[in-house]
Amino acid sequence: MKRRIRRNLLALIISWVVWSPFNSMTRYYSQLFQKELGATPMIIALISSTFVTTFATSKILGGYITDRYGRRKILVRGTFLAAFSSLIFALAPSWEVLLIGSIIRGVSLMYQPALRSIIGDSTKSESRGRVYALVNFIPGLMSTFSPLIAIFLISSFGLIYAVRLMYTASFVGGIIAAIVRYVLIEETLKERIDTFNLVESYRDAFKFVRRELFEVTLLKFFTSVGSSLCILRAYYVVYFLGISEEDWG
Length: 249
What we know:
The chain is mainly alpha-helical. It has a single domain, classed as Growth Hormone, Chain: A, CATH 1.20.1250. The chain has twelve helices and no strands. The longest helix has 35 residues. The radius of gyration is 19 Å and the shape is globular.
């Protein structure tokens, strides 16, 4: 048990350290990249909305697969697919291809329930707060350098080529992360459950959320709505306020 816990948490930390900095770079400049490929503010919002809708919907299936068939397979396969979506962004000739890549990225992230389940399963209940903090702190610390690297790339190569380099690096980092997770992560679901179906399982889950987590869910809903209303932040800062692409980084 201790060996499995160490392997799983180590695998997640390593994979995030390798992958997160590149993902952070692309996140800062994705809207500017979309604009340069012909997207209007409405289209940028549409791309974001399509991704969020696909992402949220795919989590329903992902959560079901995670609890019925296991965590490891969906995590590894989803990570490979997410990495592949970065390659689509890197090669995209127009915003229409970016839209397709966003849909693929949203579908790939159905592995997130499995990711969180593995962390929970691999951690003692009395130390989960500290473990979650540690697992997120180290990759987050590495990502603090991402804007500086992005600024250097944009200053050296220009926005479009630099962002393509960022997405290419994200693709490579994602493949490495997927390999690390494939090699190191061990399954944490003790036994497969073949007796419940999708509708019945979510009926029970909904009852639990309504009974135990209603306030937390409501709070998350309103914070998510507020965050989504500010989705065009990068576009607003650069193209309306006139801040340079480097200063935005």
